[in-house]
Amino acid sequence: MTFQRARTEEQREVRRRAILETTSAMLEEMPVAEVSLNELSRRVGLAKTAVLRYFESREAVLLDLMDERTATWLAELEQELARGVDEERTAVERAEQVADVLSRSLAKQTALCDLYGAQGGVLEHNVSVEVVRRHKKASLSNLAVMAGLVRRYLPEVGERAEHFCLTVLLVAGALSGYTSPPPSLLAVYESEPELAVHRIELEAALRLGIITWLVGVLPRS
């Protein structure tokens, strides 16, 4: 893919979309830590300096992509919750169903979880105040959408829904770093299975964390 110099706002948006879509494709092949501006510029067909006209840094690209991927995932989650939660059930039963849907849905979003894992320690560094401000506004908007979905099926959570949702996303990010062991660790697990006793499966670990949080806040019947 090669581009001529963008001269209109429409052309600039085409370049911006190409950068984001190329980065998204790279995350299907490699972890966040391995995504580089050099490889991104090569794949998108722009010089590195040209990429930096649209995004001030690698981290700025990944923050924008994280916000977009979160919004897309939430649209899918809305449908998954509608199919997977029976609003006629008791609060405890609905909590279990919400935990099932949330953990299963997030576990499929491996790249998004990886982005959340890198957010605080990596992605929110090497970016300007304006980029962080835009990212935080998008994050708060996405969090409000997610909290609204949770309250729809678990109104008992009430005003704590935002805190619950933030906790779920941060835990998913933290766990994601341990759910794709490197080849050397896999070799150890294969040769000595007893050492794999604490190997983490993302969906199961997430479900346990979600259930634990909800049990602590739901009213006792």
Can you give a write-up of this model?
The protein has 221 residues and is an all-alpha fold. The protein folds into two domains: 1-55, Arc Repressor Mutant, subunit A (Orthogonal Bundle); 58-217, Tetracycline Repressor, domain 2 (Orthogonal Bundle), CATH 1.10.357.10. The chain has helices spanning 9-27, 37-44, 48-54, 58-84, 91-108, 110-123, 129-153, 161-176, 183-191, 202-217. The longest helix is centred in the first third of the chain and has 27 residues, at 58-84. The protein starts with 8 loop residues before the first helix and ends with a helix. The mean pLDDT is 92.
CATH class of the largest domain: Mainly Alpha
Question: How much of the sequence is in beta strands?
Answer: under 5%
Unreliable sequence segments: none
Major sheet: none
Organism: Lentzea guizhouensis
GO molecular function: DNA binding
Protein name: TetR family transcriptional regulator
Domain HTH tetR-type: 13-73
